[in-house]
Amino acid sequence: MREADDGPIWAHALQTAAAIVTKDEDFAARAARPGETRTPVIVWLRVANTTNTALRIWIEPRLPGIGELVRQGHRLVEVI
């Protein structure tokens, strides 16, 4: 799904109960749209372009908080 358009990614996440982890604001904006009743979990990473290694180092300490927010029912989790 790496090269897929947003629509098929969204549909796949809904069908499989998967979360979308993204740096793309488009998914967050779609989830926040009035009338958008079915949304997958969106984990929106607000981090500058970086290497995969640096991204892993950045996100690791945030993972417990992300998981807790998802367990509480949040459908859009903005990670700063």
Task: Characterise this structure.
By secondary structure, this protein is α/β, with parallel strands linked by helices. It has one domain (6-79). Helix content is 45%, strand content 14%. It contains four helices and three strands; from the N terminus they run H-E-H-E-H-H-E. A three-stranded parallel β-sheet has the order 1-2-3, with helices on both faces. The two termini are 25 Å apart.
Number of helices: 4
Spans of at least 5 consecutive residues whose pLDDT stays below 50 are none
Proportion in β-strands: 5-15%
- The overall pLDDT, averaged over residues, is 94
- How many strands, what sense, and barrel or not for the largest sheet? 3 strands, parallel
Number of strands: 3
Number of domains: 1
Q: Gyration radius, to the nearest Å? A: 13 Å
Terminal residue distance = 25 Å
Helicity level, as a percent range?
Answer: 40-55%
Overall form? globular
SSE succession: HEHEHHE
The neighbouring-strand order within the major sheet is 1-2-3
Blueprint (SSEs and pairs):
Elements: H1 6-16, E1 20-22, H2 25-32, E2 42-45, H3 52-59, H4 63-71, E3 76-79
Parallel strand pairs: 1-2, 2-3
List descriptors:
80 residues, single chain, alpha/beta, 4 helices, three-stranded parallel sheet, 3 strands
Q: What does this entry show, briefly?
A:
The chain is an alpha/beta fold and 80 residues long. The protein has helices at 6-16, 25-32, 52-59, 63-71, and strands at residues 20-22, 42-45, 76-79. 45% of the residues lie in helices and 14% in strands.
